[in-house]
Design brief:
Blueprint: E1 4-9, H1 19-31, E2 36-38, H2 46-60, E3 65-71, H3 73-85, E4 89-92, H4 98-101, E5 107-110, E6 117-120, H5 122-130, E7 142-147, H6 155-161, E8 166-170, H7 184-190
Parallel strand pairs: 1-2, 1-3, 3-4, 4-7, 7-8
Antiparallel strand pairs: 5-6
Length: about 190
């Protein structure tokens, strides 16, 4: 049996130092040290980020059983990776149409975690559209965690897009997903790692 690899994909203007990434890291260290956990610092530009994630999977897929978890924009990337490689995925408050949302962020940005400055152009919006997934090929392998109080994304978009997947919808909360600490064990079980 192959060893387990969990790839956690952070969101827009985030990093491996984000709260949910840290929660997953701590849980695996304490309870599942057998799982190899990779939380890549993604490039700020979608095509580069998608390329880095695809390269990760190409590198490890022959030797590991891989599961994906992604938050916000990371959930969007995980949906694309699921469609491309057939890997199970858990999506936390996923972005459904980031190419619409990020139009408001065109121009100079600063990542609050890394303090890097970069410039988002309309070409980057097109890069996001290029990896949009219309139809879920295997919705049984996707679990979507949503909180209705998400102030950044309209959770109803995710309910509609992922209606055939496993959905957990909690009232209240916010985009950071309040009390995420309740979920790492169940995420790992769902991903069969």
């Amino acid at each position: 049996m192959k060893p387990s690899l969990l790839i956690y994909v952070h969101g827009f203007n985030s990093s491996p130092g984000s709260h949910k990434a840290s929660v997953m890291m701590q849980y695996c260290a304490e309870h599942r040290p057998d799982i190899r956990l990779i939380i890549p610092q993604l490039p700020h530009f979608p095509e580069q980020a998608a390329g880095q994630l695809a390269q990760l999977i190409e590198t490890y897929r022959d030797d590991y059983q891989i599961g994906l978890a992604g938050s916000s924009l990371g959930g969007y990337f995980c949906t694309w990776l699921h469609a491309t490689y057939g890997l199970p995925a858990v999506l936390i408050n996923p972005a459904v149409k980031p190419y619409e949302l990020l139009v408001d962020y065109l121009g100079v940005q600063t990542n609050p975690y890394t303090h890097e400055s970069y410039t988002l152009h309309s070409s980057h919006i097109e890069e996001l559209k290029a990896i949009d997934v219309d139809t879920l090929s295997c919705p049984d392998d996707i679990w979507v965690l949503l909180q209705t109080g998400d102030e950044t994304l309209d959770y109803r978009q995710a309910v509609e897009k992922y209606q055939q997947a496993h959905l957990s919808i909690e009232p209240g909360g916010d985009h950071s997903f309040i009390d995420f600490e309740r979920y790492p064990e169940r995420i790992i079980q769902f991903l069969n790692l």
